[in-house]
Every structure is written in C-alpha cells, then in structure tokens.
C-alpha cells in the first residue's frame, strides 16, 4: 500500500513544474483553458451569432442631444451676446464645464473653448490665439476627468486691412487707457491639418497628442478605463473626395496612447466610428458590411474580420418581404421564387434597397455588440438617412479553443 503512494508522489513532483509553468502564462496565450471572461479571448478566437433587425440599444446611449448647461448658458445670454454658445461638456464629477462657442472673427466651422465651474463662473480660456478648434462633437473629458481633449488646427492669419485708418495724435488731456490683461499661453505646436490636443483638467499643459502633418484626425473616443483613445484619420485628398460625393468621412482606425504613440489598426478606410468594448480590451469598427474587432491591450494583438454581407443581404430580403416592399433584385422573379436563397440573392445584379453599409456601432456589454445599417448622404441643407436598421452580434469564445 506504500508503493502506490510513493509512485503518486513522484507523479505529483513531476507534474508540479509543468503546472507552474502553465500557470505563469496568461489565459490569452493558452489555448487549453476556458476563459473566465471574454476579455481573455483574442479577437481572432471570437465566435458570433447574428440577430438581424432587433430593437436598438438603450436610448440613453444613443442620445445625440447637445443640451447646454443652464448656468453657463445664462452667462452667454446675459453677458456674452456676441459669442454663440454651441454646446457645453460637463466633467465626470460635474464640477467643471467646457463651453464651446463661435466668435465673429472665426469661420463658421471653427470655435473656441472656455472653462467654467458648475455655477457658471468663468475660470479661463483654453485655446491659444493661434489655434482653431473644429469638430465640436469630439470635445471630451477623459473618463477620470483629469484631461481635456479636442481637435484643432493652426488658425488662419487674418487678412490685413487694405487701407489702414489714419493715425491720430493722442490727446494729452485724455486719461490713459486701463491696461488689459490677456490670457497667457505657453507655446504649443500647431499644424495645418486637424490634430488631437490634450490638456490637464485646469486647461494647462496643453500639447498635441498627434503630430502627423497632412492627416486629418476627425474623430476619437476614450477607452472606458482611460488608458488610450481610438481615432480615425485620413489624408486631405481622401477627405475632399468623399466630401464632393456627399459621403460621410472615412478614416483609418488607430490606437493612440497618452504618450502619443500610435498603432495603426487597419489600412482600410472605415466609415463607422470605432467603439470600445466596456472592458477596454477591444475595439470594433466596420468596412461596408464587414465588421472588424481588434485587441487593444495585449502584447500580441490579433484581429477578427466578420463577413456579414451574405447574412445581411438575406436579412434585407426577409425585411422587405415582411414590410411589404419587394426587393429590387427579386421583383421580376417573385412569383416563381418567393423565398430566394442567400446564394441566389447574392448572385443577382441588383440588391434590396434596405441592404446598406454599417454606419454605427454600440457595445453595451462584452457579449453584445449592436450595429446599425443605413443609407446616409450628407446633402447640402438636409442630410439623407434612410433604412435605419439595428442588428445584434452575440459574441463568445470559439468552441475549438475550449479543450
């Protein structure tokens, strides 16, 4: 009876180093264990299930309102009628407010930013005179409220007055004018194209987070844990081409650390604005009807391409049949074949009118990723946004890695 015990002890001693060595490896590097949470699953090992045409996610997360903080709005209404308040952005702790406003000497697309407290008391100007802010919807506080971020470019120099006014001799009997105190700004680098800038919560230590002259950074989004931002950027000629076609801007997704280091996620232009997973472990965006997910925190990042074209095409056929609209690609064959297959639908020349690119994503929980398809054109005067349909991806780990 003693020998088996000794033999078992030897087995334990032999296996112990192996167990310890496996335990030192992170779950994301091991393929023989069941991950505790989806954060530990590499993007390339994700499985998904598509549920088309579902109810949209929580309305609060889709609220695009630009409500203005009342105390700050009262200041502009009563004391600063020459400045047009565009929106306000309140800090996470609710104690400070950024006021975005346009001035008469700025182009209509540009604005400036002032810092107020929650009682409407002016604290300071944030923007140096040689910077012009753009894309007001991107102005944001970091999740911890310790940083302020916005997009800006070098301010165009004002044109000189063609005929300067005559110089009048000062009147010796007139009182001397009171000296004016202008804000003092430390020197900061500026660029001809739009870059992301960051400062501390008091508006000091302003610096460019990006510095790639020639690229237009038109969107960014903080990670929920504040460790980085995901951004979209494109070249000037790419921006101009899409603008002339009345299309939404498209850029290459990239991760930007707080020290300015960038990691290009993809070399393809994405129209859908990237979103973070709630655990800050992954980023998702889309290219037409292909959804892409990228690892954001591992030393060995992977990515996943989820080809949804055929599934969404079939869902559009079913959607239009359910709503009474015959798909353009199947009208002539509807009587002979009322329920076309995915392959038949995909091979036909036309496509259903409701089949459109992915334009928006929402990631409310690690396992549930919502996305919206729609037809969008930014026509002058009024944008066109039709066939807005929400779909749901349920994410999980691939069964193949659960050995």
Which SSEs are present, and which pair or pack?
Elements: H1 2-24, E1 46-51, H2 70-79, E2 84-90, E3 96-102, E4 112-117, E5 122-125, E6 131-134, E7 140-141, E8 147-154, E9 195-200, E10 207-208, E11 215-222, E12 228-235, H3 236-244, E13 252-257, E14 262-264, E15 275-276, E16 282-287, E17 290-295, E18 303-307, H4 309-322, H5 342-347, E19 358-365, E20 368-377, E21 384-397
Antiparallel strand pairs: 1-21, 2-3, 3-4, 4-5, 6-8, 7-8, 8-9, 9-10, 11-12, 12-13, 13-14, 15-16, 16-17, 17-18, 19-20, 20-21
Question: Could you explain the architecture of this structure?
Answer:
The chain has about 400 residues and is of the alpha+beta class. It has two domains: about 40-55 and about 310-400, no CATH class; about 60-155 and about 185-305, 8 Propeller (Methanol Dehydrogenase, Chain A), CATH 2.140.10. About 15% of the residues lie in helices and about 30% in strands. The protein contains five helices and 21 strands. The protein has helices at about 1-25, 70-80, 235-245, 310-320, 340-345; strands spanning about 45-50, 85-90, 95-100, 110-115, 120-125, 130-135, 140, 145-155, 195-200, 205-210, 215-220, 230-235, 250-255, 260-265, 275, 280-285, 290-295, 305, 360-365, 370-375, 385-395. The strands form five sheets. Strands 6, 7, 8, 9 and 10 form a five-stranded antiparallel beta sheet that branches. The longest helix has 23 residues, at about 1-25. The chain is globular, with a radius of gyration of 28 Å. The protein starts with a helix and ends in a 6-residue tail after the last strand.
């Amino acid at each position: 009876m003693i020998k088996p015990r000794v033999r078992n002890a030897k087995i334990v001693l032999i296996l112990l180093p192996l167990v310890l060595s496996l335990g030192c490896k992170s779950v994301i590097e091991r393929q023989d264990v069941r991950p505790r949470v989806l954060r530990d699953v590499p993007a390339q090992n994700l499985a998904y299930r598509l549920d088309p045409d579902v109810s949209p996610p929580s309305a609060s997360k889709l609220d695009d309102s630009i409500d203005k903080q009342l105390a700050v709005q009262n200041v502009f209404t009563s004391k600063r009628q020459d400045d047009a308040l565009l929106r306000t952005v309140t800090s996470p702790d609710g104690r400070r407010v950024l006021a975005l406003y346009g001035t008469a000497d700025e182009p209509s697309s540009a604005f400036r930013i002032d810092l107020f407290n929650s009682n409407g008391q002016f604290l300071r100007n944030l923007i140096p005179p040689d910077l012009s802010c753009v894309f007001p919807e991107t102005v944001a506080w970091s999740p911890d409220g310790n940083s302020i971020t916005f997009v800006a470019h070098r301010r165009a120099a004002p044109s000189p007055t063609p005929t300067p006014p005559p110089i009048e001799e000062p009147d010796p009997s007139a009182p001397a004018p009171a000296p004016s105190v202008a804000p003092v700004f430390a020197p900061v680098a500026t660029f001809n194209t739009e870059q992301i800038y960051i400062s501390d919560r008091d508006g000091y230590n302003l610096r460019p987070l990006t510095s790639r002259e020639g690229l237009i950074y038109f969107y960014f989004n903080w990670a929920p844990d504040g460790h980085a931002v995901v951004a979209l950027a494109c070249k000037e000629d790419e921006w101009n081409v899409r603008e002339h076609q009345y299309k939404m801007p498209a850029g290459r997704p990239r991760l930007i650390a707080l020290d300015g280091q960038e990691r290009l996620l993809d070399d393809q232009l994405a129209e859908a604005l990237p979103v973070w997973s709630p655990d800050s472990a992954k980023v998702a965006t889309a290219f037409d009807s292909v959804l892409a997910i990228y690892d954001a925190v591992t030393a060995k990042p992977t990515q996943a391409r989820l080809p949804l074209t055929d599934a969404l095409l079939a869902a559009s056929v079913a959607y239009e049949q359910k709503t009474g609209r015959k798909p353009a690609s199947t009208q002539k064959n509807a009587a002979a074949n009322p329920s076309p297959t995915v392959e038949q639908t995909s091979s036909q020349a036309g496509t259903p009118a409701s089949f459109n690119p992915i334009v928006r994503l929402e990631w409310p929980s690690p396992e549930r990723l919502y996305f919206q398809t729609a037809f969008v054109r930014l026509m002058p005067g009024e944008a066109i946004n039709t066939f807005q349909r929400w779909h749901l991806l349920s994410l999980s780990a691939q069964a193949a890695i659960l050995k």
